[in-house]
Amino acid sequence: MKAQRTSWQLYEAHRENLLSYANRLCGDKTLAEDIVQDAWLLFSRQQVERIASPLHYLRTIVRNLLLTRGRRVSKAGLVETDFDIVTLNVEDQTASPEASVAAREVMRRVFDAINLMPERQRDALMMYHFKGMKLREIAAHLGVSHALVHRLIADGVAICDRIREEGL
Q1: C-alpha pair distances (Å), 43 with each of 39, 46, 53, 59, 61
Q2: Which of 22, 23, 96, 120 has the most CB atoms at less than 10 Å from its CB?
Q3: What are 150-168's pLDDT values in tens digits?
Q4: Torsion 93-97-99-104 (CA) sign
């Protein structure tokens, strides 16, 4: 109990000095208060009689807490800034209602074109792009050569690209 009283007395006697020190290091009075309180919590757990220079030890705790906080803030990329100021120049990348309708119309036209393709070409395109099958698997399924499957898909994609470009 005597050691506890001694550490509290030391802290109380030098609290203003520690606040001034922390404020000089960080430039923020509120943060300095928080850091000094945290330093006291850490210091109060120590056995003061075993510490050669308790005041120096307290100042070291304050400095280390500020350094740790600075590293954490810089690593996390956190900056205490007003949200409205930060988001003022952020571009809204959501599509406008008109652009959404236009994109859906283009997709409808692309799917209509796929449905009108010859059966083999439509199947090859659907198996490759929508089912994730490999060219050799498609060739085996359709009973055609690997080169023909490649050409069917390439021609189908060219048709879809043409429709998409016309829709823009």
Answers
A1: 6, 5, 12, 10, 8
A2: 22
A3: 999 999 999 999 988 886 5
A4: positive
From the CB of residue 22, how many other CB atoms can be counted at a distance below 10 Å? Answer: 25
- Residues 77-107 pLDDT 10s: 655 566 666 667 767 778 788 888 988 999 9
How far are the Cα atoms of 73, 74, 79 from residue 87, in angstroms, in the given order? Answer: 20, 20, 13
CA quadruple 114, 115, 119, 123: dihedral sign = positive
What's the predicted TM-score (pTM) here? Answer: 0.45
Residue 13 pLDDT: 84
